[in-house]
Amino acid sequence: MITREEVISLIEQGHYSNPKVALFIKEQLDDDYISYIDELFKQGLGKSKQPENWIKLINLLHSKKIFNKEDILRITKSILADTIYDANPNINFLLIFIMEKYGKDTLVDLLTQKNYKFQVQSFLSQIRAPLLEEVIQLFIKVCLHKFHATILNLLNKEYPEIFKPYVDKLNEDLKNQAAFLLKFREDTDAQATITYWVGQFANGFGAIDINGLKLICAEIKATKSNYSFNPIICYDQPGLEKFLNNFKNSKLDNARFIFKSAHTICGEIRKNQDDNYEIFLLDSLGSESGLTLALKGIISKIITIIPNRTIYVSYEKRQYLEAGCTAFAVDDVRHLYTIENYLEKKYAKDGLFAYLDDNKVITTFVEHTVVGSTHKFPIFISHIPISFIRTTQSRNLFDGMFPRRSIEEKNTLVNKAKKLPEVSAKDHYVAEEKDGKPKNLRLSYKLDKMRIAVIKMIMKHDLSVIKEKMDEFDPNQVLAVKAKPPPKPGLSR
Questions:
Q1: Are the C-beta atoms of residues 337 and 304 closer than 8 Å to each other?
Q2: Quick one: CA dihedral 323, 326, 328, 331, positive or negative?
Q3: Are 45 and 91 in contact (CB under 8 A)?
Q4: DSSP 8-state symbol, 307
Q5: 313-349: buried (b, 16+ CB within 10 Å) or exposed (e) per residue?
Q6: Residue 429: in which H helix or E strand, if any?
Q7: Which of 26, 225, 250, 327 is the most buried (most CB within 10 A)?
Q8: Strands 264-271 and 277-282
């Protein structure tokens, strides 16, 4: 079989159309060795003396339908990762190809997903009027939307003759945002921080890391005056272990938490007067096909640390996109603070866990070794309250999920606007241009609300103050004071 080095050599010599090259790449993709292909182009195009040959190869692979748009953008992101601190002129060939093939919008969105300041500077130097003015104006528009302080300041500095006239024609809100970001023209660290923070909510699902999670939790806490928003963020298994031990030894009788790892879920834990614990794990992937790996890991840790526990996990699968679990977890944990205001009247006294107990679907068992002896522990998989399923990314929401609920639950109001579940869900159920089929964009709407909220927070508070607020969301915080009671019905969300 031909090696990667031989493939690179063939392309460099201009033999990019050699069938061996396309066959090699196709076999790697068929075997799901995507990272291997990314590395091939990263090494080959990134260091090439003949970058035009690589672009011709990409165009050939695209025409043969070996590569699609997503492949090309993924490869480009992989190569761009090495340009954070220095530009690579070779990549400009690929960027121009993307602009010509997929349009300026795709290109500008791609170059504003991270802090590619130097590569943007290099790319723009290759563009000539009148296209240059169009591209820069689009960059300004997108940078204001994403609060991309670094590139916005670059454009103001390098192209004032285009920048100022364009910004002068914007509405007052956008002018104020531009003026705010330009205040940091001499502070590149602040530019990078703002770009990094907002970018996690402005570039689609899958971009929120542990700091982004702390940031949005700090924003929610700062704006929720009617109840105390204090979920504990547990980063991976060590963070979860700290949280569970701290909670067990605290005076707190309930807490909400977010577990952040390769997959993100949220949950709630309660302790009664007899030191019996009830735990709810809310996973956007659900448990219709069994417990996810994330749930199994969390459950194992809970069984090890928490005695006398009853564990409930969510049944419904709501996440159908590859990424988005952290956005789900943020929205879900916020709703956990007020969910008992939106349950059926019969749960007014005993609340969420009574609902979960009444709505058990499956009882499964997990094996766990305690003091050298292996035991089976029951895990109850339950339907989740109807208000949670509104974010389901599937047409099954209306075709199957709502119809299966009781009349009483379907007639329960689910938000401060006093809407019924199905009416509320339809607010963000729209047809997309690609296929005309309706899709539930509720979570996308929630993510964009997070972006706007974070921008407002940054414009209101000093960056150092925001960092202090972010540090409050940590398993190490003292769990000694009881949280305020949840708000009265109709005042949440």
A1: no
A2: negative
A3: yes
A4: S
A5: bbbbbbbeeeebbbbbbbbbbbbbbbbbbbbeeebee
A6: strand 429-431
A7: 327
A8: antiparallel
> With contact defined as beta carbons under 8 Å apart, do 145 and 174 qualify?
no
pLDDT tens by residue, the chain, 493 residues: 789 899 999 999 999 999 999 999 999 888 888 898 999 999 999 999 999 999 999 999 999 999 999 999 999 999 999 888 899 999 999 999 999 999 999 999 999 999 999 999 999 999 999 999 999 999 999 999 999 999 999 999 999 999 999 999 999 999 999 999 999 999 999 999 999 999 999 999 999 999 999 999 999 999 987 788 999 999 999 999 999 999 999 888 999 999 999 999 999 999 988 889 999 999 999 999 999 999 999 999 999 999 999 999 999 999 999 999 999 999 999 999 999 999 999 999 999 999 999 999 999 999 988 778 888 999 999 999 999 999 999 988 998 999 999 999 999 999 888 999 999 999 988 876 566 678 899 999 999 999 999 999 999 999 999 999 999 887 665 454 444 445 544 433 3
Are 185 and 156 in contact by the 8 Å Cβ rule? The answer is yes
314: closest CA among 360, 366, 269? 360
pTM of the predicted protein model: 0.91
SS3 category, 82: helix
Q: Return d(Cα 50, Cα 228) in angstroms, integer.
A: 60
Q: Which pair of tokens denotes residue 185?
A: 């023209």
Burial class of residue 466 (count of CB atoms within 10 Å of its CB; 0-12, 13-18, 19+): buried
| Three-class secondary structure of residue 446 per DSSP | helix
Q: What gap in Å lies between CA 195 and CA 143, rounded to an integer?
A: 9
Alpha helices by DSSP H, 147-185: 149-158, 160-168, 172-182
Look at the chain and count its residues: 493
Nearest residue to 380 via CA among 366, 401, 400? 366
The strand order across the sheet containing 309-314 reads 232-235, 254-260, 264-271, 277-282, 309-314, 373-382, 360-370
* Contact status, residue 424 vs residue 372, Cβ threshold 8 Å: no
